[in-house]
Design brief:
By secondary structure, this protein is mainly beta. It has three helices and twelve strands, in the order E-E-E-E-E-E-E-E-H-H-H-E-E-E-E.
Length: 294
């Protein structure tokens, strides 16, 4: 080792000839095997009888969060009383689709991380108390602190995708033109995880709640927390004038942009920002305590 190679370009056993000198052979690194979730767990295969662990559903042989079906049909998208980017109100036909019953939880996102398909949230409990990843007792809370790219990666790992703005709004409001998922009654802590009447965040808890904690606020199709708890990333780029030229059938938003849309309000919001038609937007690399995904 360290000496010159033999004339025929070889070295003693266990060594290799590099640039005329004998050196120790480097072991080839083996690619890490993807950790597969256990059967019945989130991301794992279904049990032989077609079931999964509690709170999960079997879809195409894989266990994951339960979903609700939103049937094909028309609805009126936008609002006459909201911001200029919610106008004009226009009729949209949306093909039938499924959407998760609940927001993606901390434990579900962690399953994606263990599988090697998701990266650590951009912000965690170590950064601030309001972030859920790494916080004790919050495995059933919605994941927050994830940017748009991380949200997209999770959906792809789960065999799904982020909803378009049109899909999200229809799932939240239905076809009756509801202001909120539950109807037109003003938001309160009876129906949503929000800033309470005393101005305390998270209905007095100063945090998010476990998903599905407000059955009084369920959407027409059975989806929970469509408003409140955390804002939810959608697939669409943002354009303030998008509705003026939007397709009337399965719109997917602008072809390009600099900001992505998120919907639904959060545990730190109240009033108009909890309306089903309200639009908010930020750069896709943005992450925050009030922002998650479905």
């Amino acid at each position: 080792r360290g000496g010159a190679c033999y004339g025929n370009g070889t070295c003693n056993a266990g060594l290799e000839c590099k640039s005329g000198q004998c050196r120790k052979k480097k072991k080839k690194k083996q690619p890490k095997e993807e950790k597969k979730p256990k059967a019945g767990a989130s991301g794992g295969s279904c049990y032989s009888n077609g079931t999964c662990d509690a709170g999960l559903a079997c879809d195409r042989g894989r266990c994951g969060p339960p979903m609700v079906r939103v049937p094909a049909g028309k609805f009126r998208m936008g609002s006459t009383s909201g911001g200029s980017d919610e106008k004009p109100v226009h009729e949209v036909y949306v093909s039938g689709f499924f959407i998760d019953t609940y927001e993606v939880t901390v434990e579900e996102y962690q399953a994606c991380m263990k599988a090697g398909a998701c990266s650590r949230p951009q912000k965690t409990h170590k950064d601030y108390k309001w972030y859920n990843h790494g916080a004790s007792g919050r495995s059933k809370h919605p994941i927050n602190g994830v940017n748009w790219f991380q949200a997209k990666a999770y959906c792809e790992w789960a065999g799904k995708r982020l909803p378009t703005e049109a899909e999200w709004e229809k799932a939240a409001r239905g076809t009756e033109g509801r202001t909120y998922p539950w109807g037109d009654e003003e938001p309160s802590c009876r129906v949503a995880v929000m800033k309470d009447a005393d101005g305390v965040l998270g209905c007095g808890r100063d945090s998010t709640w476990p998903v599905g904690s407000k059955p009084g606020g369920v959407s027409p199709y059975g989806a929970y927390d469509m408003v409140g708890n955390v804002w939810e990333w959608t697939a669409d780029w943002y354009d303030a004038d998008a509705y003026k030229s939007s397709s009337s059938r399965d719109p997917t938003g602008p072809v390009r942009g600099s900001k992505r849309v998120f919907r639904g309000g959060s545990w730190a919001d109240t009033g108009s920002s909890l309306r089903g038609a309200y639009r908010l937007h930020y750069a896709p690399g943005f992450a925050h305590v009030v922002l998650g995904l479905r």
